[in-house]
Predict the structure.
Amino acid sequence: MIRYELIAPVGELLRRHATERPEKTAFEDAHGASITYAELYKKSAALAVALQSYGLDTDDRIAILLPNSVDWVVSCMAITRADGVSVPISHDAVEGEIRYRLEDAACKAIIVSTHHLPL
């Protein structure tokens, strides 16, 4: 049996979870940081709006150069909600690998940690 109510855009699925279980943990990272569904819904919406305000269009590629973390999940959800395409890059990648991924995917933007900001 196909449950058609589960087939929806990411933003709609997040909204449903935020409404039905706002205080439930959506994600917890290895460092103990966590985010509820309500927080994930709000933060990913705010970042999606910010990305669009910078002129990013549908299907633009946006790199994520963050450690595995709550911020990574928020970024990924926001890019999807902004109709962009996520290009994950390992936070452990060296400069040459990072440059290659950015150029190969023709990324228009990058969400980056302060660790890699000097690059």
Q: What stands out?
A: The radius of gyration is 15 Å.
